[in-house]
Write a structure and sequence with these properties.
heterodimer; A: about 325 residues; 2 domains; about 35% helix; B: about 260 residues; Rossmann fold; 10 strands
């Protein structure tokens, strides 16, 4: 049995402009020690998917309409707030995109690092401090004995992200959710942070859910990839299959639009149009307006496509238009 | 004659340190940078954060005064010119910023944002409402925006469209030099390529000289003719774009190239 089994998750936002179906029937598994990627453009529902699991969606306007998330013998989606508090930050850790806004600027790193240990594991202050120093050392912060007494602003961006990783992993969670952890960093620092996440994952055996819009990052860190579009998964496979034999038009189009994949001098491939407005009802395939196979083509179906296992362990939305589009 | 010449451009900042701020240390943000750019060339500028890329771009844009050296545009030294003279020349060099959310005035419609800039070049249009409206819609179409949206505010547009408005705003003064500071890093992959294509087309159509700053080497490789690599305030390597990738000379270039996540 998988470590985490998410089934039919639907998270809607009830706004003045209508019901925004941010996450619409999403299911996936996370195995122990595995890195699962969720890729998609902004607004595709990547973050909402993960925040729903941890009850971090503001309700209202948000509402988890349906679904289960089996984590061991608990269902994360039906936990009470008190029950969730025992899981969040203890058995599931989180790293956000911007380490400056997710650290409290008024508190020393030490206070913030030992808090989860004191709360979740009842550690004494001196014991917790000792472990916090060891954790800072493990994420590669030089001189951790002194640095632990610094404030967040005294660290550089990359170092802050290291502190965040130390904080998320200090309770030895079974799952780490990393929401665009390197987007705000430049290439060399990004490389260090990615390596660090991989290294700590190997040391501790943590499973990682990696949210990003950068396909290159996905290909480096993930074992398994979910491609998300308009609140749904359009394709899922192991990382090799996604990059070597993508089936869905959107996955192929995304890969094709990466500048590094194209020859200099040629025009860059672009996906025409914009992602759909999720507040409107989408009839049929959500990618149709941007797809080469347009509405009216016999291959473009009216029914909403379903995610089916086309080949072993390779799940694709069964829209005939998207599968046959030549991109 | 090259269009833009940087002659030993230097900017040092003094920093106070110690208990009473009595110790002064110098930070050499930009340290003797010399560079030539031909008309119509796109130069990529790369380096790690804190290497001085932004200070260099502020110096070129005349937003900071150099400690030593000068920016020379079409043979004219800008250092030492009085402010009013630099102001007159400012419309020739424009900047595109990273974050189109922050760089557009949220209280101005697309029309007023663009019209204000157009008037710096064509003051005569101030009394010619028709002509001004036409100039604005021409400009919007040039960057691929529907001119029906002329009365809309920045928040009504998506990120990619907003970056197009920012580009239109930069082009409104009919500049010869455009400095783009990480213009696509805040955008999604699929939108990135649209903006890159647009910038390249504009260079070809308008014969713009462009400096393209980015930390994403694969983007720079695609768009730039030559690439300059910066490290601690100095330019350590300038090469033709392809040569930089196949035959990097300096250690920092190798580090930067090694850090690019690759699709395997």
């Amino acid at each position: 049995m998988a470590l985490l089994e998410v089934r039919n998750l639907r998270t809607y936002f009830h706004t003045r402009d209508g019901v925004v179906k941010a996450v619409d029937d999403v299911s996936f598994d996370v195995e122990a020690g595995q890195t699962v990627g969720i890729v998609g453009e902004s607004g595709s529902g990547k973050s909402v998917t993960c925040y729903s699991l941890l009850n971090l969606i503001p309700q209202p306007p948000g509402c988890i309409e349906s679904g289960t998330a089996k984590f061991g013998d608990t269902d994360l989606l039906s936990l009470s707030e008190a029950g969730m508090r025992k899981v969040r930050g203890s058995r599931i850790g989180l790293i956000f995109q911007d380490p400056m806004t997710s650290l409290n600027p008024y508190l020393k790193i030490s206070t913030q690092l030992i808090e989860p240990l004191q709360i979740h594991q009842g550690a004494s202050k001196s014991e917790a401090l000792e472990r916090a120093v060891a954790e800072l050392d493990a994420v590669g912060i030089p001189d951790p004995h002194k640095r632990i007494h610094n404030y967040p602003h005294e660290f550089s961006g990359g170092m802050r992200q290291r502190v965040m990783i130390a904080m998320a992993l200090i309770t030895r969670p079974e799952i780490l959710i990393a929401d665009e952890p390197t987007t705000a960093l430049d290439v060399t620092i990004q490389r260090q942070v990615l390596d660090l996440i991989k290294e700590r994952q190997e040391d501790l055996g943590t499973a990682v859910i990696f949210i990003t819009h950068d396909l290159a990052v996905v290909s480096e860190v993930c074992d398994y990839v979910n491609v998300m579009y308009a609140g749904r998964f359009v394709e899922r496979a192991d990382v090799k299959t996604i990059f070597n034999s993508p089936k869905h038009a959107y996955t192929r189009a995304l890969q094709k639009s990466i500048p590094a994949m194209q020859l200099k001098g040629e025009r860059l491939y672009t996906i025409p149009g914009l992602p759909p407005n999720l507040a409107e009802d989408i009839a049929g395939c959500a990618f149709a307006p941007r797809c080469e196979v347009k509405k009216g083509d016999p291959r473009c179906i009216d029914a909403r496509p379903e995610l089916v296992e086309l080949e072993r362990e390779h799940w694709v939305q069964n829209c005939p238009g998207c599968l046959s589009a030549r991109i | 004659m090259s269009y833009l010449e940087l002659q030993n451009l230097t900017k040092h900042f003094t920093k106070r340190e110690g208990l009473l701020g009595m110790n002064f240390t110098e930070v050499k943000a930009v340290d003797g940078v010399s560079l030539n750019l031909e008309r119509g060339e796109i130069l990529g500028l790369v380096g790690e954060s804190g290497c001085g890329k932004s200070t260099l771009s502020r110096l070129i844009m005349q937003l900071l005064e150099p400690t030593a050296g000068s920016v020379v545009i079409e043979g004219e030294r800008l250092a030492g010119l009085p402010h009013c003279e630099i102001r007159k020349r400012r419309r020739d060099f424009q900047m595109i910023f990273q974050d189109p959310y922050a760089s557009l005035n949220p209280r101005m419609t697309v029309f007023s944002t663009l019209a204000e800039a157009i008037l710096t070049r064509h003051l005569g249009l101030a009394s010619d409402r028709h002509g001004l409206r036409k100039a604005v819609s021409d400009l919007m179409e040039r960057v691929g925006l529907d001119s029906r949206f002329v009365r809309k505010y920045p928040h009504e547009f998506s990120g990619g469209q907003r970056q197009r408005i920012a580009i239109a705003r930069a082009l409104a003064t009919e500049p010869k030099l455009v400095l783009a500071d990480e213009p696509v890093s805040a955008l999604d992959v699929s939108i990135q390529s649209q903006i890159l294509n647009l910038l390249k087309d504009l260079r070809d159509e308008l014969d713009l000289t462009m400096i393209f700053i980015s930390h994403d080497l694969s983007v720079v490789r695609y768009i730039a003719d030559r690439i300059a690599v910066m490290e601690s305030g100095k330019i350590v390597e300038v090469q033709e774009a392809e040569d930089l990738f196949t035959d990097p000379q300096s250690q920092i270039t190798k580090t930067l190239l090694g850090a690019i996540p690759r699709i395997r």
